Structures are given as structure tokens and as C-alpha cells.
DNA sequence: GAACGCATGTAAATCGTTACATGATTCA
DNA sequence: TGAATCATGTAACGATTTACATGCGTTC
């Protein structure tokens, strides 16, 4: 069972959000706005675009505009919009939570129901994380004398708890 | 230029911290204490252990103890300790910062100079991140009317700023 | 019109995961 | 003794990165 792919969905998300885009445009947006969370090289992007055209997820935009250059512009197809919708609606799990920011990035409309759905699932997941991490800290460092001999471990565990707790608070503040 | 490897250093870190360990022991510690930050499959671990024995970074521990099972125990060698030391001392950059938690995990002693060194570099890096993210937010959403049409983007950018700011505060609290 | 830049494209090498395999130990 | 379990080991595939390649357009 191959690892689930990310790139095709980001491509769909960008095209759905921005309309017509070239590969170059996508690379540019990846770098400026998405590199904080995810990166991709152009040697992955271009073959993927071809594959997605074959799959009818996207199509080449016959722009009357700028065809001076060898730029290829793409637009999303109906099938692609459904694929994107299904991806956004997938349940959030420990395994795929690293993609949640990317999913949110693809949602332009503040009132989209899927947005609240994602935030709520994310909240539940990270609340569990906090519980788990706190239990782990209590187990390992409940006796504070254990901190001395494993200070680095203690540090990152403490930090993880703070980080997750902050995230939980933020998520709650964004949920209706 | 191949991507820098992580696994060998974690192996060295664990052996340096715990003394004698088998592959199974490492897998176990990966799962319980490190899975929050990093994962590895056993099919990666075992060949890597063999490679590191060949390189004299570690060696098989001739335990008189439990040799009933086919368990193979390892200990770190002097060369491995130097390799580990060099890794911990590498400058922290945007590229390798995702490994910082793993590095901290390998440092048992609260008073180790390398600990403060890492925390300070990490602080500088994330302070820069905050500056960059805030500038980006000002540029994109300084005009609040822009939020409506790109709400997801606004959300994750805002969250990133809070997350990084919290991290900066935490780092400062841990620095002498 | 020759050289360079740039969007796109291709190849090779590496990394990492899943699935499967081995051989020893335990236990019924 | 034979089945099951377990630590270790191997194979195959997909994903990702680096390096290199193509070919159009601009510019000097």
C-alpha cells in the first residue's frame, strides 16, 4: 500500500483557489506562502501535472492571452474539484495531521462548513495528544529527581505539552 | 549531494545515553519517546546498525548476560562519540531545525554547554521566523478586507506567528 | 544571430515504507 | 515435537532530491 500523495491535492487546491496557473506560478506560490509547511521540487511538479491532465483532474488552459512564452497554463476540471473535496473531507488522524495546514490553506471561504469540520477534528486530536503527553511526563518525570539524568528528554516533552496546549487553545478560539 | 541522514545520529544518541542496547530496544524507545517527532521502520534500522559496525561507530557488545535469544546488543565506540558530538555542534539552520528536538533528546546533562548553544541558535532562528511571518501577514492581510477571500491562508499564517512567538518565549525562558 | 535566461522536462541516486523471509526460542 | 512468537534480515516499490537537458525568447 503506497504512501498517500500530497502534491496532487495541493495542485488542485491552488487551481481551485486561483483559477488559471502555470507550473511556474505554482512553484512561486509554494515558495512564498507554503514553504513554511511543505516543499516540493519542480522535477516533481511537472510530471505530476502531466499525470493529472491524463487523469482529467485538470486541463491545459487554452489562453488567448500570453502564449509568447512556452508557459503552460492549467485549470481545474470538475473531476478535480470532487477529488479536492473528498481530500478535504477525509478524517484527520495522527498520520495525516501534518497536512491539516495545507488543507486549511486551500479553503478560501470563512463560512465553508468543511472548515469548522476540520478545526473540530483537529481539536479532538490534539486534546488527546495533550492528555497522552501529560501522562507520559507524569510517568517519566513525576519524580522530579529523574529530570537531572534526562534533561533533554524532559525539555522536549515539556515543550511538546506547551505547544499542544497552545494549539488546542487556538483551535478552540476559532471554533464557533 | 545526498540528503543528510538522521538515523545514524539517533542511534549514537541512544547508545551514548543508555549504554548497551539491542535493535529491538531502540525500536521500542523510538515508539514510546521519539515518535512524537520522528519515526523509523525496523527495516531501516537493522541495515544501518550493520553499516555503523563496519564504520567502527558502534560495536557488538559481547554480553555474557542474556545470549539465549538471538538478540544483538550494541555499544558506542569512541569514533561514534565524536560523530555524535560533531552532529550536536552543527549550526542550526532552517533546513535542519526539524532535528533540533532530536538533538536535545540526546543531551542528558542539564549543564552541558552544547545545550545552551543549541537553545540560543534555535532562538535566533525562530526570532527571524517571527519577523518574516509578521511581515508577510502585514503585506498580505494588512488590509483586512483581504482576509475574506483567503481565510484559510490567513488562519495558518496567524497560527504560525502565534506558534513561533510562543516557541521564542519558551526558548528565552530556558536560556541562562 | 549568438549568447544567455528561463519554463519545462528527464535521469539517476537515495530515502523510506510495506511486505515478505529467516532462524532461533518458547510453549503447548 | 511442532506450532507460534519474536528479533532480525531482505526485497520491491514509491517518493523525493540533485543534477543535467531541451528549446523557446530576449537581448546585446
TrEMBL record, chains A, B:
Pfam families, per database record: PadR (PF03551), Vir_act_alpha_C (PF10400)
Source domain of life: Bacteria
Entries under InterPro entries matching the protein: Tscrpt_reg_PadR_C, Tscrpt_reg_PadR_N, WH-like_DNA-bd_sf, WH_DNA-bd_sf
SUPFAM superfamilies given in the database record: Winged helix' DNA-binding domain (SSF46785)
Start and end residues of each Transcription regulator PadR N-terminal domain: 11-85
Domain Transcription regulator PadR C-terminal: 102-173
Leader sequence residues: none
Gene3D superfamilies assigned: 6.10.140.190, Winged helix-like DNA-binding domain superfamily/Winged helix DNA-binding domain
Name this protein carries in UniProt: PadR family transcriptional regulator
Amino acid at each position: 500500500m503506497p504512501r498517500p500523495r500530497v502534491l496532487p491535492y495541493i495542485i488542485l487546491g491552488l487551481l481551485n483557489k486561483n483559477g488559471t496557473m502555470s507550473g511556474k506560478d505554482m512553484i512561486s506560490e509554494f515558495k512564498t506562502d507554503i514553504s513554511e509547511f511543505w516543499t516540493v521540487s519542480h522535477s516533481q511538479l511537472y510530471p505530476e501535472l502531466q499525470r493529472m491532465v491524463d487523469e482529467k483532474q485538470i486541463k491545459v488552459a487554452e489562453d488567448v492571452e500570453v502564449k509568447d512564452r512556452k508557459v503552460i497554463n492549467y485549470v481545474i476540471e470538475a473531476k478535480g474539484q470532487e477529488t479536492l473535496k473528498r481530500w478535504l473531507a477525509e478524517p484527520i488522524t495522527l498520520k495525516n495531521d501534518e497536512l491539516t495546514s495545507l488543507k486549511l490553506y486551500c479553503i478560501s471561504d470563512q463560512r465553508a462548513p468543511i472548515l469548522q469540520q476540520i478545526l473540530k477534528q483537529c481539536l479532538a486530536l490534539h486534546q488527546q495528544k495533550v492528555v497522552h503527553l501529560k501522562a507520559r511526563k507524569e510517568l517519566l518525570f513525576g519524580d522530579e529527581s529523574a529530570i537531572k539524568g534526562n534533561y533533554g528528554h524532559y525539555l522536549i516533552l515539556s515543550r511538546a505539552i506547551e505547544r499542544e496546549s497552545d494549539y488546542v487553545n487556538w483551535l478552540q478560539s476559532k471554533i464557533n
